[in-house]
């Protein structure tokens, strides 16, 4: 039996849905969007692991097994861009607007060069904002001074530039952390933590909003929802920080809050988990009520519970998010509150206390029970630090993910922490991932429970050789209300009557619509002297895909 198969079988989740496998997330999302009845059959199909690996086109075309086991046509490939303490971006506080923008464009270049299709950017690191907010001050990690206007709209700029490259931008929020230090006087005078000192406590050298105070939870949610309403973000993303990680010799100072709000809970631990559960569930509902197409995902600590503590847990022996951060991550998945779960499985294959080969199938089995998409968080930084000593560690991770997808439940992608370690390419680890698994571009995985737009197959007018490559001209013939968000380009060598759009090797790239009917795109990878046949498909904003256009051969 392979290592990844040594897992415990779990009973099916008890989901309150319209039919078997039709979970509450799907129902809530489609009810909000007014599309529940039309999408039931699509949603059920999406829960099948084979379908999820090669999701069907919006028109219902079947998708066969990809020609290469190492390359997938649809998978999320992302990196975290951390702003707290200026980890990744901006590289330091106090840079002028032009320098900050140039640095962010560099990270998008890095994403493109490594064929990534999403970035998770931290926009609310410590109850401050990388966008103008009526709820919280400008972040100190922009200008060096909390509350100081950076002179431009960082989140607006990031979204616009990522979308120009057809890269998804998930806005990453840290919910409860207020400050990386404990003195409230160091916050701006109108900071909500100073206006409401009863909402805040200090622990482990930092300040936090008390998750048990309803007014504090409401404030945090409104700060996040303001960004959802006002920016064209593709997702809302939380990391692993809920209640703070335990600090030896310190006790969480929330006994008085429990006494005031803890009715109905037998223990303070259950109450804390209940606070986090309520926060996650409410955010899920409110995001979809605001913009049904915005994805909601969380990247928790990689271990829910160990099997030695709970028979439903993983075959591991490390810290447990259920007990340490009071984050019942398994419950969130089974309840269907999330579009995706992105556990930080930051350990190597074979590590006894937390074996990557034990955790990946455990999470895959849990996620498959509700249809929540599973993305695996990868510790790229451990290649740089030398903890990962095998240059093939990360590519072996993706090999294993492919096997688990086939045999246990679908894994829809991988996310790398963090951006600055990608161009470093320590031990050649990231280059090997790209060489072995990211040889071709990839579309984002489908989420059929999200509302689809009625885009139509484009008309490919011609494919003409020009000095720098081959220029495609096409027309988006949908009505003004049904224009495509983006397009996917497929190519084969020579003259052909058919281009297989299910083969990932034929996907040349995607590009964002420029608006209007007439579109063009330059294929700079075309080799001089070689004829090609192209087809183009249209994509809506959640990556549903039309049938291909009629093929055109280069002229």
From TrEMBL:
The coiled-coil segments of this chain are none
Keyword rRNA-binding carried by entry:
no
Matching entries from InterPro entries are given as: Divisome_Glycosyl_Hydrolase, GH, GHL10, Ig-like_fold, TAT_signal
Domain Glycosyl hydrolase-like, by residue range, is 75-389
User: Which GO molecular function entries does the Swiss-Prot or TrEMBL record give?
Assistant: hydrolase activity
Sorted keywords for this record are:
Hydrolase, Signal
Q: What is this protein called?
A: Glycoside hydrolase family 10 protein
């Amino acid at each position: 039996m392979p290592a990844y198969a040594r897992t415990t079988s779990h009973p099916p989740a008890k989901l309150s849905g319209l039919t078997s496998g039709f979970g509450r997330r799907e129902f809530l999302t489609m009810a909000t969007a007014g599309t529940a009845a039309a999408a039931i059959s699509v949603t059920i199909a999406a829960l099948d692991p084979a379908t999820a690996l090669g999701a069907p086109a919006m028109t219902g075309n079947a998708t066969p097994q990809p020609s290469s086991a190492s390359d997938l046509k649809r998978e999320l490939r992302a990196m975290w861009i951390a702003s707290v303490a200026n980890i990744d971006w901006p590289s330091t506080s106090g840079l002028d607007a032009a320098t900050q923008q140039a640095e962010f464009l560099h990270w998008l270049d890095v994403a493109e060069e490594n064929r990534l299709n999403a970035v998770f950017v931290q926009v609310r690191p410590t109850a401050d904002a990388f966008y103008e907010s009526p709820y919280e001050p400008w972040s100190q990690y922009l200008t060096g001074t909390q509350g100081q206007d950076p002179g431009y709209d960082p989140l607006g700029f990031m979204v616009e530039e990522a979308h120009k490259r057809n890269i998804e931008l998930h806005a990453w929020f840290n919910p409860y952390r207020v400050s990386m230090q404990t003195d409230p006087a160091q916050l701006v005078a109108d900071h909500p933590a100073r206006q409401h000192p009863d909402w805040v406590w200090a622990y482990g050298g930092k300040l936090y909003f008390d998750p048990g105070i309803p007014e504090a939870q409401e404030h945090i949610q409104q700060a996040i929802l303001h960004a959802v309403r006002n920016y064209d973000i593709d997702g809302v993303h939380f990391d692993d920080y809920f209640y703070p990680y335990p600090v030896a010799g310190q006790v969480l100072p929330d006994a008085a809050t429990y006494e005031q709000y803890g009715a109905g809970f037998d223990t303070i631990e259950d109450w804390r988990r209940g606070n986090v559960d309520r926060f996650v569930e409410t955010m899920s509902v409110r995001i979809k009520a605001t913009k049904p197409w915005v994805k909601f995902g969380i990247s928790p600590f990689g271990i829910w519970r160990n099997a030695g503590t709970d028979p439903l847990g993983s075959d591991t022996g490390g810290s447990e998010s259920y007990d340490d951060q009071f984050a019942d991550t398994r419950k969130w998945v089974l309840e269907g509150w999330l579009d995706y779960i992105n556990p930080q499985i930051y350990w190597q294959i074979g590590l006894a206390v937390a074996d990557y080969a034990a955790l990946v199938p455990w999470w895959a089995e849990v996620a498959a029970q509700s249809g929540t998409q599973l993305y695996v968080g990868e510790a790229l930084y451990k290649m740089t630090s030398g903890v990962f000593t095998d240059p093939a560690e990360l590519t072996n991770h993706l090999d294993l993910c492919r096997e688990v997808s086939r045999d246990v439940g679908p894994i829809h992608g991988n996310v790398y922490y963090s951006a600055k370690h990608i161009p470093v390419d320590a031990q050649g680890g990231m280059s090997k991932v790209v060489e072995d698994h990211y040889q071709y571009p990839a579309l984002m995985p489908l989420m059929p429970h999200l509302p689809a737009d009625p885009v139509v197959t484009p008309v490919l007018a011609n494919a003409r050789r020009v000095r720098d490559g081959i220029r495609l001209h096409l027309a988006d013939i949908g009505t003004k209300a049904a224009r495509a968000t983006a397009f996917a380009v497929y190519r084969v060598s020579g003259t052909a009557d058919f281009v297989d759009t299910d083969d990932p090797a034929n996907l040349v790239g995607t590009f964002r619509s420029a608006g209007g009917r007439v579109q063009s795109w330059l294929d700079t990878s075309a080799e001089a002297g070689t004829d090609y046949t192209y087809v183009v498909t249209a994509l809506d904003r959640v990556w549903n895909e039309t049938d291909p256009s009629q093929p055109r051969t280069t002229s």
